[in-house]
Recover the amino acids of this structure.
C-alpha cells in the first residue's frame, strides 16, 4: 500500500516535471530576451572558441532575404589583435577587457537582388541572434556601430583585412560580464497601434 | 526503511528535474532559433490578442541605438483589414489564412542622430525578436519585405493610415502553422574568419 502510494506520488511529480520543462522551453526564450543587456564591463576572462562557435551558429540561424546569406563573420580572440582594433575605435575601451570580438560583415553583391538594404537587414538579424546567444550562454556583449560611418568602416577593414566590397556592420565585444550592466525596460504601450495607425 | 528509500529517490529525482530545467533555459533559446522557419502556410485559426501582446513585448526588448526606440508596430487582427492589406501586396496571399499581421515601422526622425540607417537596423532587431517570439509560442510567421520598395511602402501606408515620415519595414503574417514549412540549415564554416578576414 505504502509502495503504491509512493508510485502514484512519483508519477504525479514526474508529470509536473515534464510540464515544467515544456513550459520553460518557450518561456526560457522570453527570459533570455528580457535579461539581455548591453554589456560594456567585462572581467577580462577569455571567451572560449566553443562558445564563440555556438554564438556564430546562432547568427547563421537568422532569416535572410531569398536565402542569400550575404553575411560573414570575423571572430577575434587574439589579445594583440583585440588591442589594435580597440586603438582605432571610439568605443574601443570596451574591448580591452573583452574576451573576444565578433565583427558582423555583409556583402551587398551577395544579397537578394544585390540590395544594399537587404544586406544590412540580414546582417542585423544575424547580429540580434548573436546578442541573444551570448546572453543564453551567460556571457555579455554590446553592438558598437561601425556602419554607416565611412571612416570607421575603413579603419575596421584595414585592421582586419576585410575586402573593399564587404561592409563591417558592427564590432561586438564578447566576454564575461562584471555584473554592472543591467537590462532596460523599453515596453511602451503607445508604440502599438491596433488594427490601424 | 521503505519510506526513507522513497524519500531519497524523490530527492534524487527532484535534483535531476532542477538540473533539466536549468539546462533548458539556455538550450531552449537555441532550440527556438533552430526551429524558427519562414511560415507561409497557416490553418486559418486566429492569433489571440494576448499572444500578440507577448510577441510585441519581445519586439521592444531588442537593442536600439542610444536607446532611442524609433520603432512602432501596427497589429492587425480584423479579417476585413487583413484581406484589404492582402489585396495590395505581392505576397498578400499568405495573409488570407493568417490569424494576424504585424507591421514593424520605424521613424528616422526618432532614431539616434536622426539616422535613417539606425532606424532601419533598430526595427530589424525588433522584427527578429518578434519572429523568435512567434516560434517560442508555437505560432508561425514570415518577414515579407515592404522596405525599400517605395511603391509597397506607399500602399501599406495608405492601407493602414501610417503617416508619411514613418517607414513600414515589413508585413509579418502571424498564425497557426499547418506544419508544411520547415527550418533551413544555413551554417557554413567558410562564413567564419578567425582572427582576420
Amino acid at each position: 500500500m505504502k509502495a503504491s502510494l509512493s508510485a502514484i506520488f512519483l508519477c504525479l511529480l514526474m508529470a509536473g516535471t515534464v510540464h515544467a520543462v515544456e513550459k520553460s522551453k518557450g518561456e526560457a526564450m522570453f527570459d533570455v530576451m528580457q535579461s539581455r543587456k548591453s554589456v560594456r564591463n567585462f572581467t577580462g576572462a577569455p571567451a572560449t572558441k566553443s562558445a564563440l562557435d555556438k554564438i556564430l551558429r546562432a547568427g547563421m540561424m537568422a532569416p535572410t532575404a531569398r536565402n542569400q546569406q550575404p553575411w560573414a563573420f570575423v571572430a577575434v580572440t587574439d589579445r594583440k589583435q583585440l588591442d589594435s582594433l580597440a586603438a582605432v575605435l571610439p568605443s574601443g575601451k570596451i574591448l580591452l577587457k573583452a574576451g573576444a570580438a565578433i565583427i558582423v560583415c555583409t556583402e551587398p553583391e551577395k544579397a537578394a537582388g544585390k540590395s544594399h538594404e537587404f544586406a544590412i537587414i540580414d546582417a542585423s538579424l544575424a547580429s540580434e541572434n548573436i546578442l541573444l546567444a551570448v546572453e543564453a550562454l551567460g556571457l555579455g556583449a554590446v553592438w558598437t556601430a561601425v556602419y554607416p560611418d565611412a571612416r570607421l568602416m575603413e579603419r575596421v577593414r584595414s585592421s582586419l583585412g576585410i575586402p573593399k566590397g564587404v561592409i563591417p556592420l558592427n564590432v561586438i565585444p564578447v566576454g564575461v560580464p562584471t555584473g554592472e550592466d543591467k537590462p532596460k525596460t523599453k515596453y511602451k504601450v503607445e508604440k502599438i497601434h491596433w488594427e490601424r495607425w
Observations:
- Residues 104 and 128 of chain A are 10 Å apart (CA to CA).
- Helices of chain A lie at 2-35, 49-59, 79-86, 116-136, 150-160.
- The two ends of chain A are 65 Å apart (CA to CA).
